[in-house]
Amino acid sequence: MKLNTKSRMAIAAILDVAVNGTEKPVALAGVSERQDISLSYLEQLFRMLREQGFVQSSRGPGGGYRLNKRLSSISVADIVDAVDKKDAAKGCQISENCRTENSCHAHGLWNRVDEHLQQYLRTVTLESILDESRPASYAPAADAAAAVPPTYADEIPLRHEGIQSPAVA
After folding, report:
1. The whole model's pTM is what?
2. Which structural domains are found in the chain, ordered by start?
């Protein structure tokens, strides 16, 4: 599993849709502006996300993208896998020349790191990312059915340079 620019942008973009698409579809032009990602690149990413069933699209005025699954059911690993399928080949992260039959001395290390990364990212959901980024003063309304879904667009740092795992003792 590679956490590259493509996967980081896809995660930031789908979180943007999650935050801004609670009441209506989100236009990719808005995501492009907020996340500073080119519109044509977003179109490629969202085609892959739509094909994998993570988002749905609607055309025409007021059209755009919405999540097609619950935030709690989408892991970071799911998004990485959806946009980086051909880049997800296991192997040494140091050298392209390193293969199982002619492996470098650190080959086993990088395979184990990859396995741990995949395992961890399968536990991180879009919901957990948004929950962690909510301000401490946020408290859900007592009558959630009557409450207007909150928008955190100005409060959530969606331009992740990477996801940090909790400190390991």
Report:
1. 0.72
2. 5-88+126-133 (1.10.10.10)
List the end-to-end C-alpha distance of the chain, in Å, as a whole number: 25
Residue 40, judged by CB atoms within 10 A of its CB (0-12, 13-18, 19+), counts as exposed
- Any idea how long the chain is? 169
- Output the pLDDT for position 105: 76
Q: Which residues contact 133 (CB under 8 A, 6 or more apart)?
A: 152, 155, 156, 157
The span from the CA of 54 to the CA of 78, in Å, is 9
Give the C-alpha separation, 163 to 156, whole Å: 14
Under 8 Å between Cβ of 141 and 149: no
Q: Which residues of the chain have pLDDT under 70?
A: 86-103, 136-169
Beta-bridge partners for 125: 75
State the residue for tokens 């957990």. 128
142 secondary structure, DSSP code: S
162: exposed, middle or buried (Cβ count in 10 Å: 0-12, 13-18, 19+): exposed
> CA torsion angle for 164, 14, 19, 68 (degrees, to 10)?
-130
